[in-house]
Amino acid sequence: MKKIIVMNGPNLNLLGTREPEKYGSATLADVEKLCQETAKNLGFSVEFLQSNHEGPLIDKIQEAGLAYKAGQVQGVVFNPGAYTHTSVALHDAIAAVAGLPVIEVHISNVHAREAFRHHSYISPVAAGIVVGFGIQGYALAIEGLAKK
Ligand code: DQA
What we know:
This protein is an alpha/beta fold and about 150 residues long. The protein has helices spanning about 20-25, 30-40, 55-70, 90-95, 135-145, and strands at about 5-10, 45-50, 75-80, 100-105, 130. The protein is about 35% helix and about 20% strand. The chain has a five-stranded parallel β-sheet with strand order 2-1-3-4-5, sandwiched between helices.
């Protein structure tokens, strides 16, 4: 069974209690359950991870690039959190594994928020972007990846 990797960046471990008016009341465990169910219905397994640090996210992108080439991975769903707006290193990691489809997801509509959230280092190297659909965005991204 091919795998979809779902990655979450900093502070997303606090979903459910973190600014619920912006991010809703669902927890990261709820997001994982949603991803597992959505992927299973489409015939994929899910590897789910969250990190508050850039390095493990970069390592996982590199690993996913190799697994994609080996035909084991369908692609990556990635909510980079605040690294979206700061990380040249994550941009470069995705660019380096050319071919691996990475779908950028944001729970909130970043374009309706502060100006510093309007720029993404990830979008230019993403295969698709899902913004502002709440946690349902993860399911939409998985559905999109399944058709890639
Ligand atoms: C976020 C939006 C980012 O601007 C923010 O730093 C996050 C969450 C979202 O899912 O809406 O941590 O990626």
